Backbone:
């Protein structure tokens, strides 16, 4: 089961959904759904980013609303991720997670690390963000010429092996803060990255059609 969460950041096209996706709006992400003519199954958050007219619109459409206090310990997006997990979702696509506020953007980009049991992808237009954890192998789909970058998180990422990338790694390490993994290039429709220890943020910039 895949849940698609609309966050309250910038939403860049294209937005590609699949039949059967469960749509969840994190507070102001509701506005993105309304603009696209979509009806979310759930709106969750403190609702401080929505107007009364927008609340009235989703209420009239029978959308489930889970409202939290403004003074809370978690962001609306983290609440949405927890709710998606409670629904049984094992795959989650997050849209609109990036924006003008660096603190929110960084927190949103790192949030999937706190949900190791879920397969989470952040998408912003033609860019995708994935996470590779210790012992995992990630298959990345794209086209030859797409840009792929690997950024270590939380410390040194060890035992990195890649396949079908222009600049390969063979069981090597990337220390925290290293830029060696930036701007690699896919050589085929699928590349593979394996990691022995640590955590990697993998970003893919797809070429425009």
Residues:
């Amino acid at each position: 089961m895949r849940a698609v969460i609309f966050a309250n950041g910038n939403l860049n096209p294209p937005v590609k959904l699949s039949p059967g996706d469960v749509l969840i709006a994190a507070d102001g992400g509701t506005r993105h759904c309304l603009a696209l003519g979509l009806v979310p199954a759930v709106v969750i958050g403190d609702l401080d980013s929505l107007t009364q007219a927008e609340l009235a619109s989703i209420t009239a459409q029978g959308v489930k609303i889970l409202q939290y206090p403004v003074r809370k310990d978690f962001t609306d997006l983290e609440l949405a991720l927890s709710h998606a997990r409670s629904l049984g979702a094992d795959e989650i696509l997050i849209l609109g997670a990036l924006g003008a506020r660096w603190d929110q953007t960084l927190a949103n980009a790192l949030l999937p690390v706190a949900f190791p049991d879920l397969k989470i992808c952040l998408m912003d237009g033609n860019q995708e963000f994935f996470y590779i954890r210790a012992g995992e192998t990630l298959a990345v789909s794209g086209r030859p010429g797409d840009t792929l970058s690997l950024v270590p998180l939380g410390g040194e990422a060890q035992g990195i092996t890649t396949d079908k990338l222009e600049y390969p790694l063979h069981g090597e390490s990337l220390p925290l803060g290293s830029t060696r993994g930036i701007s690699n290039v896919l050589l085929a429709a699928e590349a593979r990255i394996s990691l022995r220890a640590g955590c990697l943020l993998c970003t893919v910039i797809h070429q425009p059609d």
User: Anything to note?
Assistant: The mean pLDDT is 95. The domain at 2-125 is CATH 3.40.50.10240 (Rossmann fold). The radius of gyration is 18 Å. The first strand starts at residue 2 and ends at 6.
